[in-house]
């Protein structure tokens, strides 16, 4: 992944799309708004800047020390005051040995790379979650339409039964059952209203806390997504940001071990200065060299810790690979089964339920069917429509997981980041 993708958290502040009134939001706009406004993703980008600062700091040389020494002053006789003082002004520099700076910079560089991959994973997760929340809101809107239709249907049935009871063609119990069905439809409508508010609030949170009352989405929920190839999914997780982050963690552990070994090498300090002898107003150069003697501390504990961390990083990398593969297989299986289920609802079950209700409605009006037949057909139609909406949510939940694992929205992330950085440069 190119460095251009995540250079500065400040870039996300350059473009802030907002909703005007009750403007209809399409999926592409929702995804872009999530990338620009979501605070969790902004925090991930800030982590990259922080890691870049650590990398810069690790690459710096140690500062030299300025040395000022005054000897032989404030004594007696010829050393009274500063008459016999010796004043030394010099500089000392510690020289890092064993490749300390190189290894330290490598460790920090892998931290930077890991933070990049984690930010990309955060972005992919955010976009997958946003798409699901977008579809959830669309389904909630459809559920409201369905609840209204059910209530209208219950009102219609109630009116028909009321007329038949009034004409002494139906028993009073049928009128009571029609009342119950109407009351149940009203309850379902209130539930649908609550779900709509919840779905709006959830999507608004992902978009950066915009006004949820202004949210209105548009999507053809009958246009089902295509099932991805399972092998393509399994191949793609090898390049997933989670996989790359674990690989970088392994490399970082190796660099940390190299750093631990290099820290066992003593660093000499060299000094150079000038000394003035007040006694005879003369000067002379002085030079020094010093270094610690590695008798007791040879960084044995640090080396042991680094070796253990290498083993740990390797194990975690292997475990993460297994977990990703298992998640990918489960997501694909759920995707396939949900897609088949939803397709059957749309193409077979719902049309059949509508036909059955129409036949029962016409037959009841003519006296060919009983009230229970009509009520059963009405309830069946509503239940299969509700189940269809539930299957849609399961389908898009599985799709969101596969999109995340496949990095489906990586081009959108890169495109948005490039646009932000270009705007930052132009400003």
Short description:
With 427 residues, the chain is α+β, with helices and mostly antiparallel strands. It has helices at residues 27-37, 39-58, 100-166, 172-206, 230-236, 241-262, 300-366, 371-406, 410-426, and strands spanning 24-25, 65-71, 86-94, 216-217, 269-277, 282-290.
| Rg measurement, Å | 36 Å
- What letter string, H or E per element, gives the SSE order? EHHEEHHEHHEEHHH
The rough form would be described as elongated
Q: Mean of residue pLDDT?
A: 86
Q: Can you characterise this structure?
A:
By secondary structure, the protein is of the alpha+beta class. It has a domain at 3-61 and 96-264 and 299-327 and 409-426: Outer membrane efflux proteins (OEP). Helices cover 66% and strands 9% of the residues. The chain has helices at residues 27-37, 39-58, 100-166, 172-206, 230-236, 241-262, 300-366, 371-406, 410-426; strands at residues 24-25, 65-71, 86-94, 216-217, 269-277, 282-290. The strands form two sheets. It has a four-stranded antiparallel sheet with strand order 2-3-5-6, with no helix packed on it. A hairpin with a 4-residue loop joins strand 5 (269-277) and strand 6 (282-290). The longest helix is centred in the first third of the chain and has 67 residues, at 100-166. The radius of gyration is 36 Å and the shape is elongated. The chain starts with 23 loop residues before the first strand and ends with a helix. The model is unreliable at 1-18 and 423-427 (pLDDT under 50).
